[in-house]
## 1
Amino acid sequence: MTILDGKKVSNDIKDEIAEHVKAMVSKGEKVPHLAAILVGTDGASMTYVNAKVKACERIGFNSTLIDLPDYTTEEELLQKIDQLNTDNDIDGFIVQLPLPKHIDEQKVLMAVNPDKDVDGFHPTNVGKMALDLPTFLPATPYGIMELLERYQIETSGKNVVVLGRSHIVGRPMSILMSQKRKAGDATVTVVHSRSKNLKEITLEADIVVAAIGISEFLTGDMVKEDVVIIDVGITRVPDATKKTGYRLAGDVEFESVSKKASYITPVPGGVGPMTIAMLLKNTLLARKRNLQ
Ligand code: L34
């Protein structure tokens, strides 16, 4: 069993991007500038956004964190987005999800200029992705494909089962892995909360991408020997023995599944850090597009 070390691979990618930035600086070019909007004080969201800002600092990007209170109105958020859309110094920006319930997420994502949409969530970019046209790929699926590629895991002709159909992970993952591309060419099945005979389906999988949002959902009896496991889930489970008061759990029961797996991502240290690395990669791409 090999651990797919997302922490290490993400650091390699960050080093590669840092080299690009150095070259840009030496040519007198403007370095990429990422902005992130965070609405509210959700602990996990704050952790992720802060990690994104820190990663920017480490590789030499400029970054701006826009922290808005949870009572921010939809209109105020849309105004902020408009400012970023027209600010020539900002190459790309994200609106961290989830948003407070009183804000219409789809409306917000549609307000982002697709050329600055480094999350790849705007319908224009989702459409381009589905049609295999050049665009910003959503960071988590992009990170998973990069991880599979760097570990040279064969996906062509394999049975991939994606657990979950979310707009940000399950759905794009299933589209990308079925396409003719590196870490693609797979036979993809999407299963979700209404699927029947789930275990029968997962037992056929060569690769499982677990993104269903239920901690330790996938257990050892649901997978075959030598399966490749990508665990996207990250839930804070109360744990009094920890300083923080919680532990992080994936969608996979690591203990039982790792005994059967040929490769498996850990939580933490798997998919999460890859998400951040690919966001940076998209931001670099956004900057380069601006260069013309
Ligand atoms: N707009 N919203 C937008 N874009 C995204 O790409 C995200 N996502 C998801 C949630 N909302 C979003 C993220 O950034 C999930 N996500 C994310 C990013 C980073 C990490 C996890 C999820 C991460 O770095 N995880 C660490 C542990 C961090 C901790 O201590 O809690 C890990 O090793 O998995």
## 2
Amino acid sequence: MNKIKVMTVFGTRPEAIKMAPLVHALEQSESTESIVCVTAQHREMLDQVLEIFNIKPDYDLNIMQPRQTLALITEKSLHGLDEVLEHAQPDIVLVHGDTSTTFAGALTAFYHKIPVGHVEAGLRTYDKYSPFPEEMNRKLTGQIASLHFAPTPRNRDNLAREDIKDGVFVCGNTVVDAIHMTVKDDFAFRDEQLKTLDFEKNRVVLVTAHRRENYGEPMENICHAIAELSAAYPDVHFVYPVHLSPYVRETAEKFLGGNERIHLIHPLTVDEMHNLMARCYLIMTDSGGLQEEAPSLGKPVLVLRKETERPEAIEAGTVKLAGVEQKDIVRLARELFDDADAYAAMAHAVNPYGDGNTSARIIQAIEQYFGRREDGPEPFMS
Ligand code: UD1
Ligand code: UDP
């Protein structure tokens, strides 16, 4: 019997990290042929991931421009993918999450009448402008997709509220598959600045911030909060791997540069990042992926956003929504620095987002869709 031709389409760092375990599983499965197409909406940050997971794309659209607009990313992806789909003729296209690449990938596949599988489906804030443009990207992708791989039961219920009930599978999040591949007790850092850190003597706080809706005052507030905390706690080192977006770099450098206990460093490779997370004291971030990874590692997270589409870890007690006001961020961080009980209450390893078997479930659902097996996957129970 012919193998099912499955094309994965992705373009940014987090999509690559979360698609990587699935690409490996598709390569190994007897029933599927894996075809990888990257838009390269991110260039260097994507290539870092491809190298670590040893993935060689079959198609690379190489679209990234400095300070690219949303329209430009979408337009270049649509044009490039149009040709690729014409040439490769996959049986199904898999897109991930909520980026501009995701939406463009789903839309182009639809124009070619190729079914779409949406990995990480059903996350919602119900605020069209926050996260922007991600909330609309994932809603529009949900309308196009035939298969919806929802990480959690809540994500399934969100889809049901939009009358998306067929082809929905609760699979967990592939990011947990990824973290099982990277974290090692004896991991040795390659980054020169990470090598200088003493995790026994100093408390290390990992910081990341990049969201478009945080550009401007929110990101400045976040920087002021970190500077205030750094001045108040001489034993604490902040490590901030700065996203390559010029806006983010300029803001971080302007408000946090030149402080010897605030390490503004180049984006880390994913294995270094995951192992840094495993060893740090606390994570402060506006990233989606970090909120899903940290619970596997038992690290408290303060989310530097007004809302989150990932409330499961808040309910599990390992994540708190800190907002984007300096005083709120400082208050919550101080509590975790000063109060051992408050820290212990958040620092436990339970992950409501996955168990490491998400890629296998997704492949079973695809096999069922193409009539290669009777039953779909057993749902992930969070
Ligand atoms: C994108 C996604 C966002 C995701 C984030 C993950 C959209 C609209 N946004 O946001 O959902 O959370 O990725 O990081 O899809 N750049 C480089 N080199 C790189 C990567 C980026 O120089 O390797 C710079 C470029 O100047 C680029 C800018 O960063 O124009 C912004 O990249 P872009 O993909 O447009 O937006 P992100 O903020 O990264
Ligand atoms: N990450 C990384 N190196 C870094 C910062 C983040 O490998 O320097 C990883 C992180 O572990 C997570 C993903 O990138 O898996 C998150 O990406 P990002 O925060 O850019 O996007 P989001 O998840 O918010 O969409």
## 3
Amino acid sequence: MTNASAPAPDSALPLDMIIFGGMGDLAMRKLLPALYMAYLHGNLPPSTRILSTGRQHIDRKAYLAHVEAHSRGFIARENFVEKTWDGFLQLLEYVELDVQGAPDFSALAAASRPGAERVFYLSTAPSLFTTICDKLAASGLVDANARVVLEKPLGTDLASAIEINEAVGKHFAESQIYRIDHYLGKETVQNLMVLRFGNSILEPIWRAPNISSVQITVAEEVGVGSRAGFYDGTGAMRDMVQNHLLQLLCIVAMEPPTSLSPDAVRDEKLKVLRSLRRFKLADIARDTVRGQYGHGVSGNQEVAGYLEEKNVPPDTSTETFVALRAHIDTWRWSKVPFYLRTGKRMARRSSKIVVEFANPPFPLFPGAPGGVANRLVIELQPEEAIKLQIMAKEPGTGMQMQQVALNLDLQSAFQQRRAEAYERLLIDVVRGRLTHFMRRDELEAAWEWADPIIDGWATLGEKPHAYAAGSWGPPESFALLARDGFSWVE
Ligand code: NAP
């Protein structure tokens, strides 16, 4: 997708990609492998250099050894080309920098080429963003060609999100800020926009009353792992719902944009966020479910409950699961429930959007199997797929119906490789394309909706419902849909 209004980077300039947190988990598992893939496919300008920063007192050789040991393994075997990898390593430099300790960034300024086009990837805790941006600016590293990429979490509530936005906005124009939500980089999510707005058959029925409900699930099989220190202060609502699930909801619910320019698309997403009905205390009690996993079986192994995990405070009420019923108060979506669900230690890793269409007004065929006749299922994880469930006649002498899936098999329709979300988004950053990144007002509107729910839970003071690790969440989550005559599609 093109996006005309993003500032076109001056491709004649050398590109310096500067990663803060260059030795961290995200850099090793995602960023460097994604940059390698971009390099492998010729999507990095030949002049690119990657300057990784970190606090450790090591030289370039030791850094490369660290990358060999901790990053190389995250490149799929079929994509690994020894010679290309060696070429990629040549792009890497290491700059020792404690952003809090250093009075300024002169070491970084000395390493970055004068006049280079600079991309700053802030892969650190957000508490460092202000210091990093202030010192980058003071060191003369921020100019009109510079871009900054911000990793989530972008705040823990509206006030902290505003604080981060203000601090970054002091030195970078909005058109230079890339707030990353890697769900927006997924092929299938981008394809949903094409499906909706590149065809004319769906749009007329893409509304109430033709659509009876929408479900968005992002289920993780893993538990909190070693991230309890971070996670316990965050919870599933802040970690997943406020960002990934709301962004998916926006793509499902937005009106057709007038163009693919970043602002045209983001204006429409913003309207959705602003139309989300606000939860009052009674709505929170009725339409939201918080859960916390207990001991159970996951992937054939017995696993600990959240409270038994390392570094989890005793008796904490942090939720590892959320299900809720949201409403978008617009003509298009009037009375259509949007069910959102996310959790850790669920039965399996599975992210999908399910759009359920209204059933035919009366049952013509005897012995209909019941349930929902038509569903559009957009699977995002672990595999990306789009399926349309329709009713078809069972072969035979009668008129028996069965649900069958029209499978839009994109893997065989297109021979091209499907890039990972981080690779695609990093290429967008390099090329100055902002469409698939969140704008400031979107982020703040998402917090405006999420904050009252989080505050309401605190006011209600209820403990999260227990669910067994390896299950689909607490029974209350099923009851939430059953009440309206729906059920989760696993
Ligand atoms: P991490 O492994 O803890 O890495 C954080 C990095 O920050 C480390 O490399 C550390 O450098 C650096 N850092 C900390 N204090 C510093 C200082 N004073 N000066 C310079 N560097 C400093 O964390 P991560 O998992 O990579 O996550 C990074 C960010 O991305 C976090 O905000 C996280 O929430 C977000 N995120 C992570 C993931 C993921 O899958 N990991 C996914 C989505 C979002 P040293 O090497 O010197 O310790």
## 4
Amino acid sequence: MKTVFRQDILDGKVAFITGGGSGICRGIAHAMMAHGARVAIVGRKEDRLRTAAQELTEATGRACLPCVADVRQPDQVEAAIDRTIAEFGALDIVVNGAAGNFLAPAAQLSYNAFKTVLEIDTIGTYNVTRAAFDRALRDRGGHVINISATLHYAATPMQVHASAAKAGIDAITRTLAVEWGPLGIQVNGIAPGPIDGTEGMSRLAPGEFRDRYLASIPLRRFGTVEDIAQCALWLVSGAASYVHGETVVVDGGAWLPGYGALLGG
Ligand code: HXC
Ligand code: NAP
């Protein structure tokens, strides 16, 4: 993979990455492994995790542990973290990327649909971060990166569930940064814009909407998985050692046009 970072910056580090079996977080796993880390990737689909782990190890020469867990279930999360520490002897970096989303107007959303997205995204982020704190971060310090979005900065129709979920995640990022910074735990977030070739893009920017969306992005391109992976690397590289409690927007300026849309810009 192309990178501006020295290949050994994460030598000896261990990362626990939820959602690491696919899309953006698989890209983060790849980047961290390519820079020396050993990584556990976490999700519900065992087959996909096993295949991803094998491919990532072949690509990087580093160990990757596929861990089946539903982030909504604290006991499964705790078992996955225990397994990671037993396998690799440490846990230094947590990436909370597990999420669920779909387009649905609020008036057609069931109570359970709203609750499900908050449970996966927001409560899942808390469950994983808290279990990692108890088992490793409290004593050793480390990094937490919460994957957010820009949906809630203005207002995004058909996304009341995901907007509420990601706003909650940003609150977790800031609060834990204050509570855990003194322990040497750096807590940040990344808010990706539209990232091409991902499940999120195929669910949220279906074909007919794609061209209009592209034309509205100031950098005039969709993001890549590597764009997000490079930001994650930067956050844990030491180059960002005074960045704390921040959710870094990586979106080519996509959310900025705002009322510009009314002017056709
Ligand atoms: C309305 C829906 C729905 C849809 C499911 N539900 N899909 N409601 N529109 N398209 C409802 C169901 O009817 C059910 O409510 C409730 O949601 C829970 O559904 P389940 O299928 O039982 O839940 P579960 O098996 O836990 O699956 C969670 C899921 C699923 C979110 C629904 O799609 C999933 O696992 N997604 C993971 C992958 C994913 O979404 N990736 C994209 C992330 S992108 P009832 O009332 O019937 O019981 C992303 C981008 C953010 O987050 C920003 C981009 C710019
Ligand atoms: P994705 O490939 O669908 O990633 C979501 C991952 O979460 C999957 O690997 C999925 O694995 C896992 N997951 C879902 N529910 C889970 C649960 N209950 N327990 C454990 N794991 C679970 O989607 P993506 O588009 O790459 O999105 C990745 C992250 O970026 C998400 O946080 C998303 O909100 C954020 N984001 C994406 C975009 C975009 O353009 N794609 C934009 C903004 C933000 P299993 O199905 O195996 O469980």
